[in-house]
């Protein structure tokens, strides 16, 4: 592909939802965990959605699992999808055709909710809350231990 350059296409802007955590590959996991726990514990949200695509899926699942172990009583529903993405490549030299490539990108959407009434418990991706004994509440102060 040395003879081609990728054409930047404008991606449709998706409005941000207030209770949504979008995980990226280059973001720090602690920032995503802090934001998610802040939504649940301080802002009082009953439901949050953690989303990630491509190489960020691993980090997305890890963030959701850590949040479940910091906030008690969270039901989980996981959805997996495959999204189509097309790239357009224009040639540097004359005589070559423009190339359009299509690829599939995996995506995951993890919903964490305190209220079981808002969840579909018959969905294949549903998980019950973990036992209270396995939850370690998030420490909000950083005092020295005696």
Q: What is the strand tally?
A: 6
**What is the number of helices?**
2
Q: Tell me the helix content.
A: 10-25%
Distance N terminus to C terminus? Answer: 62 Å
Mean pLDDT reading: 89
Output the structural class.
alpha+beta
Q: Indicate the proportion of strand residues.
A: 25-35%
Shape: elongated
Low-confidence stretches are: none
From the alpha carbons, calculate the radius of gyration and give it in angstroms: 20 Å
* Main beta sheet strand tally, sense and closure: 6 strands, mixed
What string gives the helices and strands in order? EEHEHEEE
Give an overview of the whole structure.
The chain has 146 residues and is an alpha+beta fold. The protein contains two helices and six strands, in the order E-E-H-E-H-E-E-E. Strands 1, 2, 3, 4, 5 and 6 form a six-stranded mixed β-sheet that branches. Helix 1 crosses helix 2. The radius of gyration is 20 Å and the shape is elongated. The termini are far apart. The model has no long low-confidence stretch (mean pLDDT 89).
Relevant terms:
six-stranded mixed β-sheet, alpha+beta, single chain, 2 helices, 146 residues, 6 strands
Give the SSE layout.
Blueprint: E1 4-7, E2 20-23, H1 29-42, E3 47-53, H2 57-68, E4 75-91, E5 99-113, E6 126-127
Parallel strand pairs: 2-3
Antiparallel strand pairs: 1-4, 3-5, 4-5, 4-6
